[in-house]
Amino acid sequence: MTAPIRQPDAVSLLATLRQGASTAEQLVGQHLDVLERQQPRLNGATAIFREQALLQARRLDREGDRSLPLFGLPCSVKETFGLAGQEVTAGSRRMAPEHHAQDAEIVRRLKAAGAVIVARSNVPELAMTAESNNPRYGRTNNPLAPERVAGGSSGGEGALVGSGSSVFGVGSDILGSIRIPAAFCGVVGFKPHSAAVDGTGTWPTVTGNTRSWLGLGPLTRSVRDARLVYDVIARQPLAAAPAGAAASGRLVTPAGLPLTLQDACIGQALAAARSALTDSGYREEVQDFSQVRHLFLQIPKIILDDFYDTWIRLLSTPGQAPFSPWRELAAQLLRRPTIDNGLLTWMLIAPLMKPRRQATASRIAADYASARAHFHAMLGADGVLVLPTLGLLAPHHGKMNRQSLKPGVNGLFTAHTLGNYLDLPAIAIPAWNFRDPATGLPPSISVLCAPGAESQLFAAADAIETALNPPLPG
């Protein structure tokens, strides 16, 4: 039976640091020790910065401002986020590494707020599948059950935060890439709306029709930690929640949403989360979400339109013929792969799914833009959605890509993907009180809102977290 990894959160640890009950060096050293013990089992980190992190922690203890919002907290960052003097590889051996002379903006903000970066975290190759496995760094395992996936693409972050190796991490999310690892690893994950956090210095730069699908945000030990970190990395910190926000608002119930739940514990946690809001005064309001079926079917078309040609370019060797997915398939059948099988699967469906004409891609993009406007207006300033983050618990290695990349409407994934193509802020919350009796794994429940209603979202998330989990220590 998997035991919940419930440790003092960032807010509690900050209090001990500010009271002098602990030093930054002690806290960072403790987490580095955990990280180095867990790394052989989980492979969540692609680099560990022991000497640099301890040096920074000593400097903070000696001359730092203890009122900094993240003073002395050890954290990790996704491998696709630029760090000064480091290379971004996206886990690929074929892609030419991208050298970064300076920190990504999100990293700069973390450091300026007093956070101490202890590690970079692993990703799927080119950060485009839900299993964090790649030819360069290998496979990341789930901290709750190493025989299972940690999720992706921010799977290394899920493993590091879920194992207690870092107090929090930051990742990116274009199709659930923060919330899937958070759900599988038993932690909180928050995907802000696409314009909320400056992506300068992160990889890749998305300029096509999916640029509004991508959000950068934290993976944390608690909802209040997610807000703490978000207020540091966001262009604008959140306003204080309106008076009575936790006890008022609209709980939008989606009618016609294709949804599949593989495990009974997910439905039980979902019912408890919704009851936590209605019992506190939320008004339930049924709205039509039947459009989601059509929107879901367009996902691979618009992803491949934006990324397929870039993948071919990145994987091609200069001076030679362009990379061929069909030659790679033959190489993999001969057990001589040069790229990850999950990435290859994306590429092999391109002839069937990638729009042949730009007019088709533009029409699909217009459908998404219209849907975003419609659902943003429907949710407004006081409406929230409460949905299962995923319709399944963490599967065994190899099974997540097979389930998530198969064609057709897949109700296991309709709930989290709408947060991306509708550009909705979305927070995933573990439900440790509703662990699956067979595996001990926790389900995960998400709260979503329209951009601008994040204070309402966090008020609802606080109430749901309390209903779904035992209290945090500290």
Distance between the termini: 24 Å
- What characterizes the major β-sheet? 11 strands, mixed
Range of strand content: 5-15%
- Model regions low in confidence, pLDDT < 50 over at least 5 residues: none
**Order of adjacent strands in the largest pleated sheet:** 1-5-2-8-10-9-14-15-13-11-12
Separate helix tally = 17
| Content-based structural category | alpha/beta
Radius of gyration: 21 Å
Please provide a brief summary of the model.
The protein is of the alpha/beta class. The chain contains 17 helices and 15 strands.
Write up what this structure looks like.
- By secondary structure, this protein is α/β, with parallel strands linked by helices.
- It has a domain at 10-252: Amidase signature (AS) domain (Amidase signature (AS) enzymes).
- The protein is 39% helix and 15% strand.
- Strands 1-5-2-8-10-9-14-15-13-11-12 form an 11-stranded mixed beta sheet, with helices on both faces.
- Helix 8 links the parallel strand 11 (250-255) and strand 12.
- The longest helix has 22 residues, at 358-379.
- The model has no long low-confidence stretch (mean pLDDT 96).
